[in-house]
Design goal:
two-stranded antiparallel ribbon; seven-stranded mixed beta sheet; Rossmann fold; DNA polymerase, domain 1; disordered N terminus
């Protein structure tokens, strides 16, 4: 097996994280060894890619030679690379990402494996259609590593409150809705609802009122200042704008609804004995994964109020033990951002 080429030194330290908490802690730190971006004397930003819970996810999928696999969150390609190596010369991998920049980098990174790797720019909400279009039916495994990565935080699209960048926050820049639309056009009530539901922000109403009063808000840095002023900054570990930025990003990209839809599609794509592994980083995502797996493993999905079962639902998966996988202490020691990660795994039931 040929080794993949080295990643360019003009890369960022990329770790998937959805909640921003650990990234924001690093941004606020004066310790240069844990800074989000490292920089040489000539101004080049560089570091290395870190895929969270990579060995655990490959173990959970029980990757086999000649298998077919789908990486629904391609990102920097860490899981895709491991799937390529684990499935050996006869295996195939489909990689999806909504971000065109991620797809472009992956085409370069996996150029030597273009006969085994299919790369598609698409949101995983369209997983089933994309998979069938490219011949990925009855697959051996599907992996999700959901959320945002630190390269995107520095992409100039307004994901980070440290950035003096336009309010965009789109993973897929082909879509219409932007963070600017949410921040400057949503009503105060709508904003408070978004911050409460997607950010679990305790000061949602106060922040929403301040955002409406401060309009127009055009940059991420300006939004961060408005939120900080409204919420108050007590100097804690988490910056007060963390939950607001998470909530707006989730709203812009419809992340939770997309995840829910994609999980059921992933189950349908699996062959009997095939597995789906999902790495998430906050309770909102994990709750969706848990509920989806529970639903797909039940014999009846009728409402509790129904007097008799009329759904004719057939269990499709079983939960793979342990029910909740966590990163090892060794990984957390090396990569502090992995500490909030958790993984759930389900296996497609064998027919008969």
């Amino acid at each position: 097996m040929k080794k993949l080429g080295k990643v360019s030194k003009r890369t960022l330290n990329v770790t998937h994280t959805s909640s921003y908490d650990d990234v924001c802690q690093e941004e606020a730190s004066d310790n240069t060894s844990s800074a989000l971006l490292k920089q040489t004397e000539t101004g080049e930003r560089f570091s290395r890619h870190v895929s969270v819970m990579l060995p655990e996810s490959i173990q959970a999928l029980s990757v086999q030679p000649g298998g077919t696999y789908i990486d629904c969150t391609l990102g920097e390609g860490g899981h895709t690379e491991a799937l390529i190596q684990g499935s050996q010369s006869s295996g195939k991998v489909l990689g999806l990402d909504a971000d065109s920049e991620a797809i472009a980098r992956a085409h370069h990174r996996f150029a030597l494996y273009k006969d085994r790797v299919v790369l598609v720019q698409e949101n995983f909400r369209h997983l089933e259609a994309v998979a069938k279009e490219h011949g990925f039916r009855n697959v051996d495994g599907v992996v999700f590593d959901v959320g945002i990565n630190t390269r995107q935080l520095a992409s100039g699209r307004g994901f980070s409150f440290r950035e003096d960048a336009p309010l965009d926050m789109r993973f897929d820049t082909r879509q219409d809705l932007t963070a600017d639309d949410v921040v400057n056009r949503y009503s105060e009530h709508e904003l408070a609802k978004v911050l409460t539901e997607y950010g679990e922000e305790p000061h949602a109403r106060r922040i929403a009122k301040a955002m409406v009063h401060a309009r127009p808000i055009r940059t991420a840095a300006h939004l961060g200042q408005v939120v900080q002023s409204a919420a108050g900054y007590a100097g804690g570990r988490i910056h007060p704008a963390t939950r607001t930025f998470q909530a707006i990003r989730i709203e812009v990209n419809q992340e939770l609804k997309s995840l829910e839809d994609a999980l059921h599609q992933a189950v349908r794509l699996l062959k009997p004995g095939g597995r789906v592994a999902v790495i998430s980083f906050h309770s909102l995502e994990d709750r969706i994964v848990k509920q989806a797996f529970n639903q797909e493993s039940r014999e009846c999905v009728c409402p509790p109020s129904a007097p008799v079962c009329v759904c004719n639902h057939t269990p499709m998966v079983r939960t793979v033990e342990p029910r909740l996988w966590r990163p090892s202490p060794q990984e957390v020691g090396v990569n502090i951002r992995s500490r909030s990660a958790r993984m759930r795994v389900a296996e497609r039931l064998r027919e008969g």
